[in-house]
Amino acid sequence: MLDIGITLRKYRDSCGYSQQFVANCLEISRVSYRKWENNEVDFSINQLEKISEFYSIPIDQIIKDSYMVVGYMIKHSSTK
């Protein structure tokens, strides 16, 4: 299970970018980008390549970071 959306939000926030700025740079609408961050779409390899190029982060690192987010969420879930 990947949570690329939260990873994208982390990257965007760490750079101080707005959703609109990132969407413009990726040549998509802000609504489409919001759907990416909210995990409302399945990511294609082309989308991951765009993200990788924009943030200068290898695709495998994006995937690793996404798994780390999921691991953190599971570890810190309040269900017992």
Could you outline the blueprint of secondary structure elements for this entry?
Layout: H1 4-15, H2 19-26, H3 30-37, H4 45-55, H5 59-75
Helix pairs in contact: 1-5, 2-3
Question: How would you characterize this protein structure?
Answer:
The protein has 80 residues and is mainly alpha-helical. It has a single domain, classed as Orthogonal Bundle (434 Repressor (Amino-terminal Domain)). Helices cover 70% and strands 0% of the residues. The chain is built from 5 helices and no strands. Helix 1 crosses helix 5 and helix 2 crosses helix 3. The protein starts with a helix and ends in a 5-residue tail after the last helix.
The shape is globular
CATH class: Mainly Alpha
Q: How would you characterize the largest beta sheet?
A: none
Under the CATH scheme, the architecture is: Orthogonal Bundle
Helicity range = over 70%
Q: Classify the fold: give the CATH topology.
A: 434 Repressor (Amino-terminal Domain)
User: Structural class, from helix and strand content?
Assistant: mainly alpha
| Total helical elements | 5
Low-confidence stretches: none
Give the CA-CA distance, first to last residue.
21 Å
* Overall residue-averaged pLDDT value: 86
Keywords: DNA-binding
Pfam families: HTH_3
GO molecular function: DNA binding
Protein name: DNA-binding transcriptional regulator, XRE-family HTH domain
